[in-house]
Each structure stands twice: as C-alpha cells, then as structure tokens.
Prior knowledge:
This protein is mainly β.
Amino acid sequence: xxxxxxxxxxxxxxxxxxxxxxxxxxxxxxxxxxxxxxxxxxxxxxxxxxxxxxxxxxxxxxxxxxxxxxxxxxxxxxxxxxxxxxxxxxxxxxxxxxxxxxxxxxxxxxxxxxxxxxxxxxxxxxxxxxxxxxxxxxxxxxxxxxxxxxxxxxxxxxxxxxxxxxxxxxxxxxxxxxxxxxxxxxxxxxxxxxxxxxxxxxxxxxxxxxxxxxxxxxxxxxxxxxxxxxxxxxxxxxxxxxxxxxxxxxxxxxxxxxxxxxxxxxxxxxxxxxxxxxxxxxxxxxxxxxxxxxxxxxxxxxxxxxxxxxxxxxxxxxxxxxxxxxxxxxxxxxxxxxxxxxxxxxxxxxxxxxxxxxxxxxxxxxxxxxxxxxxxxxxxxxxxxxxxxxxxxxxxxxxxxxxxxxxxxxxxxxxxxxxxxxxxxxxxxxxxxxxxxxxxxxxxxxxxxxxxxxxxxxxxxxxxxxxxxxxxxxxxxxxxxxxxxxxxxxxxxxxxxxxxxxxxxxxxxxxxxxxxxxxxxxxxxxxxxxxxxxxxxxxxxxxxxxxxxxxxxxxxxxxxxxxxxxxxxxxxxxxxxxxxxxxxxxxxxxxxxxxxxxxxxxxxxxxxxxxxxxxxxxxxxxxxxxxxxxxxxxxxxxxxxxxxxxxxxxxxxxxxxxxxxxxxxxxx
Length: 668
C-alpha cells in the first residue's frame, strides 16, 4: 500500500486541537441536548455525524437570518483520473464522489472514489497526507458498472493515538491518523482479510465495501457490498464481522441467514440456503453504546428480482436486525419486505432517536425505506411505534416464482414517496407527451406497490433507487423532527430467462437499473455545463421527482413536504422550454445535515447546494456547485470559531470537495 505526507503539521493538528464531543453517547443515549457557544469548536466524528446516524450538529453559527451570506471557502480536487489496469487492460473509472468527511479538530479525513484515504486541513483545504489502499490493483469490481465509489472512513482512539479505518474491497485497513501510514501491528501489516472464513469460500474480487466501518468501544464492525448482478450458485454470502480495533483479531461473525435448528431457518425452502448468497449489509450500521446494541440493515438475497430458487420469506433479508455488540448475538429483528423481488434494501441507516411518548421518553429506531415508508420501532424490543398491518400481495406470473402472500405496511406515518403506479401517474406536460407515455406503458403491467417483476415488464414504483436512498435522513433533536429526502422515479421490472439462475433483469434497454423514462428528441438550449443535445430523458412519472419532508418524531405527523431541486436539462429542452412548469425536483439518494441553527444543508442528488429552514422547508440560499453533489453534506466548527459546510461533488476528473462558510464579518 502507498501513502504520501504533504504536510508536517498533522501531528500537532491531531494531537492538540480539540476533537469535539464524544460521538457515541451523544448519538445513541437519552437526556437533554447540551448547548454550546456558536464559536465553540465542534467536530463531525462519524460519516453520519454520530453513532446513531442522526446527521445533526450542535453548530448554530449559520441561521435563517444569515444563511444568505454563505460563500465558497475552498475547493479540493481528488486528482483521480480514468486509468488502464496494467495486467488486464481494463479501464478503471473513478465514479461518483460520495464521501462525507470526518472532522477531528481542524482536520478532515475522507475517502475518494479510488478508495484512497486523505487528510485535509479543514480551514483552507490543504492536503496533508494520503494513503492508497490499492483498491484498483485487482482490476474491476465485479458489479453493475465499471466505476469505483466509496463513502467514508471511521476513527478510533486508543492508547493515546488515533487510527483511521477504511473497509476497501475485501480488506479492512488501520491507518495512523498522524502520519497516514498503516498500523503494522493491526492484522497483517495494517489490514485484515474480510473474505476469510465465510460461510463458504469466495472469489475476493467479487467483494466490495462502500460504507465506513462502524466503530464502538474497541470493536470495528464491517459489512460488505456485493454487486446485484453478481448472480450464481454460492455467490458471496453476506456477513457482519467484528474486529479488535487494536490487533485486527476477529471477535465474532454474524451471518444474515438463520442458523440450522432455528425456527427462522424454515423461511427458506429446499436447499436454497446451500447456494444462495448476498443478504449482505452494505449500508451503515448504528450503535446504542449505552445498551451495547448494534442495528444492522440487511439487504436482499441473490438474485434481487427473481426468487424462484429461494422460495419462502427469506429471513433475515430485508430486515432491521438488532445484535448484541459485544458478541453478535441476535436480540430482535423486523423484516420489512418478505421474499423481496424489488431490490428494496434498507438503504438508509437505522437512525437512533429519543421520542417524547405519552408515557415518557422512549428510545426508538427510525428507518426510511426504499418503499417510501418511514418505519419506526422501539429500540429495545423492536415493537413498532405505530400499528403495522399485513395486506395481501399481488401474485407473480413468472414460472417458478411464488411471491409472499402478504407484505407488512405501516399505517403511520404517511409515506414520503409515491407508491404503486397507474395511468393517472403518467407525465402530462403536453398532450403529445401524455400520448407518448401512454403508448410506452400500454403493454406493461401496472399496479400497487409490491406488484412483482414480470416477463411482460412491470412498472415498479418506487424504483430501485427508492423512495429513500443511502443517505436520506437527518434529525433535529431540539425540534423533535426527522427529515427525509424522497425520490419518485419508477423502474422497469422486465425479466428474461437466464439459465441456470432462472431469470434476470432484461439488459436490452441499457442499464436495467436506470429509472424508467421517455426519450424526448429535439434540441436543448445551451446549458453552462454541457453542449447542445438532441435528446433528453424525461421521467415517465409526473413531478415532483424529489422531495424533502419533515416529520414530528413524537406524533409521526408530516409537518411539511417541499419539492427539492430541479431538472434544468428538461426545462431547456425544445419540447418543454416554453411551458410554465412547477419546480420538478431531483431524484437521488442523499439527504440533509441538520444544525442547531435551524438550517438544513442538502443537494438531494442535484447540482445545487441548498440551505433550508428547518421549521418550514423554505429555501434560504442556494449555490450552483458546477457538478452534481453526490454526497451528504457535513458541517464542523474549526478552532477559529468558523462553521463550515462541506460537500463532495462530481465524478471522474471533476471530483471536488467544496467548502462554504460565512464571511468573517458576519460571525459574532
């Protein structure tokens, strides 16, 4: 592995500057929220802000009154470019820049698309050191595309020193935060092999990781990312693994499929468990450090869209699972989708909050689903906070498939995204566009949510991206609010035969995981970021395509929902440019960061950074980023007393980290 040091001040930065509040207890315990001075240094010690993934900061310097004065402070470029793998000749592409940095004192720690770990001075964006995990050395990741992505790192302090952890492909690395060098005493030369001693032997090049490890106490807990289109007998199995933060010794492993002799084993028919892989945990896990509980979002089994070779409800897939942190012992679980056929992974991390219930404070876990539901459970027992009802589910017409008889539906809160699809949902900007949309879906299957994929083709809504994505939620504990970014973009669930796996998504229409759209021919007006084009993709569904919603944590009531973002390429198109269209919204997986100043910061998957008033959803300020903001923004207050907002933007050679703050004259 390779590292480089670009500055000699990092030891002082890491060792002497304050690191902000302890993340564990504040993010997962109970009690009043401590107040701080607007200029007191505040860190961001987790990718999602704290151990409970609240994406909330006590920083209060930026308010609705001054947010309009924000200005760009600095820009840092990853410098990563498309490259050719020497041995195979494969083209390796640094894809979307999705990382949210950690802030420890004035130092930012982050990962890049090529899985490098970088330390920056958060005051001016100067690069201090970088460490290359060698993620590209093994060539392409066997996934749905050729690009590399990564979303962040984790940190741990022990024996007077700080370490940075990154899970990169099939390895977990421990890095000295002061020097950028691997910790030689951790595992083998600074890393451990995540592909060793799993349920069955695996091809390690099929294993990946995009999310940061979860660190609590002296444990580092890691899941895995496995491409949805990696489909074969005994493809890589999902496993949650915990390692000693000092030595790298594995403490425990939990398999998201039931152990022999347990009643949950009966939810898999025949020999399915002897050959079915995935059921991996690719999103972030969260920790209640007071109780020693770990909350795990388990994804779908292979394959995501055809289950004829894994009949049954398939526990513990598509579930929120609570484990004992110290041992990996199962405490409780809630399956959100039975026998999933829609890739409805619980992508957004389980969020740990305390709600004001009639009987007193109640610790809970909220999960924004790809389904468009906001699920809420008691953190200790797993009982739903509001009633859930089973409803009959549509049957499949695909040979060999058997859908679940029913699916669980929360009766409250109301959904944040549209569910199911009918002709009433078709885009209708003009009569011509409406006719084109009707002709497009005329031969397709439409129906309620959980209408299964078909050979004919099913309009699946929400589509594969959700609903909610991997970064959709943020919490304001002072106001008792949870904010959810929602997307309304259906997908096409059309299956084609593919032996011996049965069926897979039809690849003939390009990337089968793309949202369902029409292609409008014509010319677009010149836009600042691209040349004129003759066609544009128009979503098949009516806008808004992206929303931001605020819910009361105690009552579950949705207090407001606003359209978030716009699609300028649609507005500029010849078929639409003369229309008086409402804000269209933008689909995407990323959500907000909430602050004690009453301001949210979000891109929502678009190229604009917004400051939103938490109480109303009103836009206070916006700034064109010059590229899509692919990450969740984060915020911190440096030792100069300045609050900074940081967001990762762009992809490939255009990947940049951008920082914003108030002019110094605005700060009291």
